[in-house]
Amino acid sequence: MININAIHKSFGDVEVLKGVSLTVAKGEVVCLIGPSGSGKSTVLRCINGLESYDQGSITINDRQVDVVSKDINDLRTQVGMVFQRFNLFPHRTVVENVMEGPIFVKNEPRETAHANAIALLEKVGLGDKVEAYPQQLSGGQQQRVAIARALAMQPEAILFDEPTSALDPELVGDVLTVMRDLANEGMTMVVVTHEMGFAKEVADRVCFLYGGQIVESGDAHTLLTQPSHERTQDFLRRVL
Ligand code: ADP
Ligand code: MG
């Protein structure tokens, strides 16, 4: 479904992606791990066209991701994104936050968007918070609203950029549970995370990014327990 072929990306003189290739099949969960600054967020941002790339190609269902093409908004609706900071609209209720995209981007009737939003909020365990405002919720609850908001667009895949990194430790589990459920339902996911337990349990594949290159990738269990590259070994020793 997602096909990244040797992409390069520079910011000014600094090349931050140096030929990254990655394919993600429908229903697959791929975790991207690696030290800060290795290019993980930039890879995700290139996949859904928030950032351009200089060389190589990215296709989603055989359609080229090209930030200047007129399809780009349509492509963006196919790939949801969940950020470390939830970016909810503070002056809108939880349910309004979830309805916004379907109404304004997909022209869904308000009633349909509302009914879908309620169902999604129930799914992420927030059926009793639909009329609350974001600041009345914990970080973990806000992140679950952000996941419901991404799902409301009926994306074909969701990209997660360190979705639990900003959360207090006791709130991480509920968010990971929602993500695990999504994975089990067959959602295609690319997840940047430092939660190695989640990666080991849920990911079909783990890729270790270092200095703008994928230095090692493989099935989650093998990569996390018997990494073959010295850089991967060193990184895992620090985070585990
Ligand atoms: P990670 O998510 O793995 O921490 P990023 O993809 O955010 O890494 O960043 C990779 C590198 O690119 C870093 O050196 C970062 O400073 C740089 N970078 C990211 N975004 C920008 C930007 N908009 N302008 C300049 N440099 C950037
Ligand atoms: Mg990042």
From TrEMBL:
GO molecular function terms listed in the Swiss-Prot or TrEMBL record: ABC-type amino acid transporter activity; ATP binding; ATP hydrolysis activity
SUPFAM superfamilies reported for this sequence: P-loop containing nucleoside triphosphate hydrolases
Pfam families the record matches: ABC_tran (PF00005)
CDD domains linked to this entry: ABC_HisP_GlnQ
Keyword Lyase found: no
Topology of this chain in the membrane: Peripheral membrane protein
Residue ranges constituting the ABC transporter domain according to the UniProt record: 2-236
Protein origin, superkingdom: Bacteria
Alphabetic keyword roster: Amino-acid transport, ATP-binding, Cell membrane, Hydrolase, Membrane, Nucleotide-binding, Transport
UniProt-annotated location(s): Cell inner membrane
Predominant cellular place of this UniProt entry's protein: membrane
Record-level GO cellular component terms: plasma membrane
Coiled-coil ranges per UniProt: none
Protein EC: 3.6.3.-
Family classification: Belongs to the ABC transporter superfamily.
Entry protein name: L-cystine import ATP-binding protein TcyC
Organism the protein comes from: Vreelandella titanicae
